[in-house]
User: Fold this.
Amino acid sequence: MTGNGQNKTHEGVIDENLRRVYQEAVDEGIPDRFKSLLEQLKQQDLDVCDGEDKTT
Amino acid sequence: MSGGKETARSDPRDELVNHLPAMRAFAISLTRNGATADDMVQDTLVKAWTNIDKFQPGTNMRAWLFTILRNTYYSSRRKAKREVADVDGIFTDSLAEKPAHDGHLQMGDFRVALGKLKDEQREAILLIGALGFSYEEAAQTCGVAVGTIKSRTNRARKQLAELMGLREDEAMEMTDDATMSVLSASKVSSF
Assistant:
């Protein structure tokens, strides 16, 4: 039983650190390149549709 | 005309942007390298966009994206194993220089310890411990059995505890030590 309690404490310390590592990465924010990549992909699809309409 | 039809149907691709922060943070935590992580996220976005028909609406998109993300990582790791090893060395060195103020050393220690885990173990414990995935979700994401995720997570926890010097009875003591060292450091500097 005591062993379990200690493991719980360790687990708590470890998980807290894990969440901190992860959260620090989240806090860095998202580089603009990804949003512009999504825009590009969207635009590409639209271009393909337009191309089909006008037979390029 | 065709535009109206497009917007009426909800496009799962519109959700991709919402998962970007988690994707990138997971990639950074897994690879411990910003440039590698960003390349992975970029590849994943393109793959997800072009293969969106393989995503089943109503299922867990984050898990689906993480699957693509990790597969991207493991296939690039096979190609560039040596490069990754070098990066590890630089990472560890720079961390060793961090000062001991307000628990940063402990945090640095943890990062080093996390970096020493096998990728598969780090991945499992990040999904479970940091992202709050269920064992089932993590298993689905990694394409392995639930039991495999459980044992990877357990091994990762055990190894992290060892590397951090957390032994039985010592969890609380260690926190006290950290507090004491911060206290004594500030005492010294106030002289």
